[in-house]
Amino acid sequence: MSTRYLSGTAVALVTPFKEDRAVDTDALRRLVQFHVEAGTDIIIPCGTTGESPTLSEDEQFAIIRIVKDEAGGKLIVAAGAGTNSTVHAVELAKNAVKAGASALLSVAPYYNKPSQEGIYQHYRHIAEAVSVPIIIYNVPGRTGCNVAASTILRLARDFENIAAVKEASENFSQISELLEERPEHFSVLTGEDSLILPFIAMGGDGVISVAANQIPSQIKQLINAVKAGNLDEARAINRRYRKLLKLNFIESNPVPVKYILARMGMIEENYRLPLVPLSQASKQLIDQELELLGLL
Length: 296
Known about the structure:
- This protein is an alpha/beta fold.
- The chain has one domain (8-228): TIM Barrel (Alpha-Beta Barrel), CATH 3.20.20.
- The protein has twelve helices and eight strands.
- An eight-stranded parallel beta barrel has the order 1-2-3-4-5-6-7-8, surrounded by five helices.
- Strand 2, helix 2 (57-71) and strand 3 (76-80) form a beta-alpha-beta unit.
- Helix 4 runs parallel beside helix 6 (149-158) and helix 10 (231-247) runs antiparallel to helix 12 (280-293).
- The chain is globular, with a radius of gyration of 18 Å.
């Protein structure tokens, strides 16, 4: 495994649906090509933004296969493959690898609130079951528990294929500890679009981004500007898209991002329950910003 294999711009890809809620494979292929052309580094199908809780295992396998085929080796396919049952998470990981995933994004066990030792054992079993790089997905706001920096670092040191963390929190104390104490191969990625600028400035490796569904090249430019020390340029990009980054979370993800993509003519605006369309008030706020940015 090369040093810092997982870095740069990763898109948390939506799953487009047809009106009958079947996966829209044609739209999916178009989205992948959009990211190939934009220079996205990593594409992540079947994550939270891809409505993974509503996808069957057969659908996940087919989606990963399509993304892998369409990507054609031009970007890394890091498939979402996690759940709160360790046995099931191992099965999902193995299936994702069979479908062609080059890496995995595995969410911390949610709802059952395991101890830090339980979290360690969860990821140990996954790491021992597959050989591809694994991204720990720490998202306390959704899972109800935080994966402590000490646990993440322990896993990174014990397993070479524990290759990165998606740190989807605003806990800068934890972020600092991860950046300062990680092993050389281990990448630290933010899951918070609004924190890209300070996160990369602290030494972070990249972002797993929701807004990259819409503005992948601009997210990449922001990261590259910070890494190059061009802070004036980075601030200007951040200032221009700051409201859009927040509007992507005006209601539960991925409802806003799919609405925006539909307004941009890239997908149909369809969701699977329990997700429902945006309120009219949210749509109006988003439409105003999209018009201002010239994205309509």
